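Deliverable D2.4 — example input (structure tokens):
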């Protein structure tokens, strides 16, 4: 059974990412909200610049926020117990990484779909 989804603390997430000098774009629901949409969202989605140095900074920021896997069917306690390493190399191998942090649910995307079917990366 999954724990209740924590409220996303956008200010804390942004402050932590910026303090670690992570290059990223906000995408998904919070991006839409920032542009005036009124859609609900329960997680923070970002598109990170894919250099090893930037992904290492991202991993360091997420470790500070006690990031753990967010997996359907696992409780937060069970996720915390998994021996998962959060490092930049891990982000290089994943198209999407879904995490739960002390500041709310956080997804790191390698790319997002464009309206014409292309896949768009940070660049």
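Example output (designed residues):
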């Amino acid at each position: 059974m999954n724990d209740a989804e924590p409220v996303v603390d956008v200010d804390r997430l942004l402050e932590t990412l910026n303090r670690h000098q992570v290059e990223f774009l906000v995408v998904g629901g919070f991006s839409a909200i920032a542009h005036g949409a009124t859609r609900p969202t329960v997680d923070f989605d970002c598109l990170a610049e894919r250099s090893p140095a930037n992904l290492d900074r991202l991993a360091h920021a997420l470790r500070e926020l006690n990031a753990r896997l967010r997996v359907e069917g696992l409780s937060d306690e069970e996720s915390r117990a998994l021996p998962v390493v959060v490092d930049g190399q891990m982000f290089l191998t994943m198209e999407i990484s879904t995490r739960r942090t002390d500041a709310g649910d956080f997804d790191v995307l390698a790319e997002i779909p464009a309206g014409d079917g292309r896949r768009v990366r940070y660049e």
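The first helix runs from residue 10 to 19.
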